[in-house]
Amino acid sequence: MKSFAYQSAFSLDSGQTLQELDLPQPVAQGHDLLVEVKAISVNPVDAKVRQWMSAEPGKAKVLGWDAAGVVKAVGDKVSDFKVGDEVWYAGDLTRPGSNAEFQLVDARIVGRKPSSLGFAEAAAMPLTTITAWEMLFDRLEVEREHSDKTILVIGAAGGVGSIMVQLLKHFTALKVIGTASRAETVAWLKELGVDYLVNHRQPVAEQVRAHGIKEVDYVVSLTNTEDHYENIVDILKPQGKLGLIDDPKELDVVALKQKCISLHWEFMFTRSMFHTDDINAQHELLNQVAELVDQGKIKSTLGEHFGEINVDNLMRAHALLESQAAKGKIVLEGF
Question: What domain range includes position 253?
């Protein structure tokens, strides 16, 4: 099967690229689905893995943790899917990714693709949807109804932020403050329904207070947490909650003590990596979001379509992600 992979970890300025390889088509067993990949999305995790993780000796590393496709075979322990089903999923960091014509994925982390979306529009959503959902409802345990609380989302116009804002507006009564720094991302967040906007290129606490909001109950920091940390601690209420998904080199947790702020890390691969007892939760949430999409209540966060899945387009997507200038999600479709 056609696959795009590498052997040794590399940076974009090294002169190396992904390689087109012909790898054996895998066989579905147990809980696995064999999916014919129709479209993929490229995420920051792809770039991080490419930079830091080499393939095992004699093997190739296939990236890609966002896909939509068609089930071609099912393992003997699969009951929720059949051959021909259209599906969407983010996959498992410990297994070969979706930058290949076929992929094995555990059915318990797969959902049915929204019937109202094409494969490209659907592929833009799984990883960010799971991340946003788990952060809000599993980690921060935000109140779903009748809340007068406020949440600040730093990096709200990116992939995770774009779906998080929609989940907040649909499921909760929280006032949503989103950060953006460019005219197009500001317009995007207004379209998604953000209540207040601030510029993350400037100190955020001062800007939030300029809106008449003294403190916030929750902060979700989706990028550059180190740069905003002092402002985050400042603007959070005593006994507030801080959630993050990035990897700060340093984080002074002692700064959270005086206000008794709780810290919550979200990593959407935890359930699949450790085969947690509630691994099926990702299957269930993807199905629930698919229903909302088909009802017109949640929209795809596709930002840019980079064409077919090939080396040049994948490398172009990696470069845009590393520039931190992407709006919404970058997708590729077809081989």
Answer: 128-265
**174: pLDDT strictly greater than 80:** yes
| H or E element, residue 39 | strand 32-42
Q: What is the pLDDT of residues 186-201, one digit of tens each?
A: 999 999 999 999 999 9
Spatial contact of 191 and 159, defined as CB atoms under 8 Å apart: no
Q: Which residues contact 191 (CB under 8 A, 6 or more apart)?
A: none
Q: Quick one: pLDDT at residue 303?
A: 84
CA distance 77 to 94: 20
Sheet with 19-22, side-by-side order of all strands? 19-22, 2-6, 61-62
Q: How many domains, in total, are found in the chain? A: 2
Closest by Cα among 312, 155, 126 to 225: 155
**139 and 242: one domain?**
yes
**Cβ(42)–Cβ(55) below 8 Å:** no
CATH number, position 211 = 3.40.50.720
pTM of the model: 0.94
Q: Which of these, 139, 94, 89, 125, lies nearest to 244 by C-alpha position?
A: 139
Confidence of residue 100 (pLDDT cuts 50, 70, 90): very high
CB 26, CB 101: distance < 8 Å: no
Is the distance from CB of 91 to CB of 104 less than 8 angstroms? no
Beta bridge partners of 216: 236
- 120 and 59 part of one domain: yes
Residues 175 and 104 occupy one common structural domain: no
Quick: pLDDT tens for 304-331.
Answer: 999 999 999 999 999 998 887 766 789 9
Backbone angles phi, psi at 169, to 5 degrees: -70, -30
